[in-house]
Amino acid sequence: MAGHSQFKNIMHRKGAQDARRAKLFTKIIRDITVSARANPDVNANTKLRAAIVAAREVNMPKDTIDRAIKRGSGGEDGTNYEDVRYEGYGPGGAAIIIEALTDNRNRTASEIRTIFSKHGGTLGETNSVSFMFERVGLVHYPANAGSADAMFEAALEAGAGNVESNGQGHDVTCPVDDFSAVATALEKRFGAPERSGLAWRPLNTVAVSGDAAEMLFKMLDALDDNDDVRNVTSNFEVSDEEMARLSA
Questions:
Q1: Claim to verify: residue 43 and residue 165 sit in the same structural domain
Q2: What gap in Å lies between CA 141 and CA 193, rounded to an integer?
Q3: Mapping DSSP to helix (H, G, I), strand (E, B) and coil, where does residue 174 land?
């Protein structure tokens, strides 16, 4: 397992999804509402589209999604949210980027700093680790959406930069500026993706094992559990054997 992808609902342990379902719904509804405030047109608003894809992935009812869009576009939610990013190092030297949506920067910063400190991490300044990552647009389809050749051909025509296909599915990446066009073209060909949005892709990975891996996963759990955290990305890599041990 390499990295900690924001395209997995920031949940690296499947068993945690059910227990956190209500909290996850709350986070996604907030994302939809805030995104719709900027522009309720799904075709023209990349963030709103990504939030709706995330909502569908967790089987959020259509009525709930529609109400969140209406609330945001109508200005009914007057809370002033802002995007913030935190960067630092976790156990084993893993670089971590946290993206949050908050109505209180001081509260969120204090909570993130506490999580880093409690789990043996070091919170750094903005851009202290982001240079180790590349910002890209990413669209993920399940393996049965089409053959690897068909996906590669369609992605190439759409202007994507890379396609990785395996038994887990197809990951299509592209420059950020091309994301909307690529996502739209692929959706016309293969239907709605499982996950779609902007991602931090590590340029290199750091192997983590033993006690450091266990502490790192506890730290990621704590970050995932924070109400303001939207996405967590890291450049760690652990072996299949280590994953089995940690999941036991």
A1: no
A2: 5
A3: strand
